[in-house]
Design goal:
The protein is an alpha/beta fold and about 400 residues long. About 35% of the residues lie in helices and about 15% in strands. Strand 5, helix 7 (about 185-190) and strand 6 form a beta-alpha-beta unit. The longest helix has 20 residues, at about 255-275. The chain is globular, with a radius of gyration of 22 Å.
Length: about 400
């Protein structure tokens, strides 16, 4: 599919009907043992374990189809599947760090990324340092000769700062650091980080790629063979792999990713506009809005948006916040996002920042616009604000 557009790639990548009796979707292979007809075949598999179907955990036709599709979307050499988004983050970091290394991580990173770095990498003798997500080329001042990884997330979790990815990547390359990014928010459709100097792109495929809140899945895409081998070896050594049914749901989700994202994007923008007019709301943190940090970078590098964003309201006491949220009909309160359902959740960025300070005293809510009608979602929020006002 040379030169095919992304929407077309979504419908065709990772499929080989001719190899599967004409069946449109790749079948699900439930597999542990793979049998070899001769001793020579068995030994050949041991010599090149990643080049053929060798053992269920290392890869099956189902997992290879998913990885092929993701790699094609990201413009990557190859991809590696994992059991969750955090599993993908941990595997990528394990692949490129060792005792004595220095790692730089954006201060706006996903909370579990920070916990993994602090609770696992640091005890293993890796120096972890966090940086201002708006630092851009200024990251040069933090780089050290032993900086092995620079980890980005753009937009950042909760606060949605957009990073100057090309500038940070160019600086990191001067010390030979591997540049990684959590690209879950933008998906492979809206941002291709490997075209902007990034080496390793990570997705919590649990979210938009699966799209239906019913599977745990992660994936890591690598720019070249050496990086892919490092990640694949790290995954193999730690026993990392996704279950075949979750892989199948990831493949199925890819087929409708583009049409789902159009609805997520449109609804989130409608909600953001409506919320910006509510007197209790002091800030709407959505990268597509001109007053959001990094908006110009978003416009330059990404240009499209998904369904996740945050708002900051005047400080709200707990009883009033409970009155506001507890009777919502369409917005659920729960972790994760990217599914068909709309979600809302209180957020506390000040509790985790270390390189920067989050000084806004207001109450933050993170919202995910699902696939419901936007007017119905606004009606649900309108009732929530009415309950808030009555409780204050």
């Amino acid at each position: 599919m040379k030169d095919a557009r992304k929407d077309t790639v979504l419908g065709h990548a990772g499929r080989s009907p001719r190899e599967n009796h004409g069946i449109v979707n790749p079948p699900v292979y439930h597999c542990s043992t793979v049998l070899f007809p001769t001793l020579e075949d068995l030994e050949a598999g041991d010599q090149a374990p990643f080049d053929r179907i060798n053992y269920g955990r290392i890869g099956t036709p189902t997992t290879l189809a998913f990885e092929q599709a993701i790699a094609e979307l990201e413009g990557a050499y190859r991809a590696v599947n994992t059991g969750s988004g955090l599993n993908a983050i941990a595997t990528a970091l394990f692949a490129f760090t060792k005792t004595g290394d220095h790692v730089l991580i954006t201060d706006s990173a996903y909370g579990p990324t920070r916990r993994f770095a602090n609770d696992t990498l640091v005890p293993y003798g890796v120096e972890v340092e966090y940086f201002d997500p708006t630092i851009g080329a200024g990251i040069t001042g933090l780089l050290k000769p032993n900086t092995s990884v620079v980890f980005l997330e753009s937009p950042g979790s909760l606060t949605f700062e957009v990073q100057d990815v090309p500038a940070i990547a160019a600086a990191a390359k001067t010390v030979g650091a591997t540049v990684m990014i959590d690209n879950t928010w933008a998906t492979p459709l809206f941002f291709q980080p490997l075209q902007h100097g990034v080496d390793v792109s990570i997705h919590s495929a649990t979210k938009y790629i699966v799209g239906h809140a019913d599977a745990m899945l992660g994936v890591i895409s690598c720019a070249n063979e050496a990086q892919w081998l490092a990640v694949k070896k790290a995954a193999t050594r730690t026993g990392t792999c996704a279950g075949p049914d979750d892989i199948y749901l990831g493949l199925r989700g890819l087929r409708t990713l583009a049409v789902r994202l159009k609805q997520h994007e449109a609804s989130a923008l409608a909600l953001a506009e409506w919320l910006s007019k509510q007197p209790e709301v002091t800030r709407v943190l959505h990268p597509a809005l001109p007053d959001c940090p990094g908006h110009e970078l978003w416009k330059r590098d990404i240009g499209r948006s998904s369904g996740l964003f945050s708002i900051v309201m005047n400080a709200v006491p707990k009883p009033a916040l409970s009155a506001m949220l507890n009777s919502l009909e369409l917005f659920g309160m729960g972790y994760s996002w990217g599914g068909f359902e709309s979600l809302i959740l209180p957020a506390r960025p000040a509790a985790v920042r270390t390189a920067t300070r989050w000084t806004d005293p207001g109450t933050m809510l993170r919202l995910h616009a699902g696939l419901e009608d936007a007017d119905d979602l606004i009606h649900d929020l309108d009732g929530a604000f009415a309950r808030l006002r009555a409780a204050l």
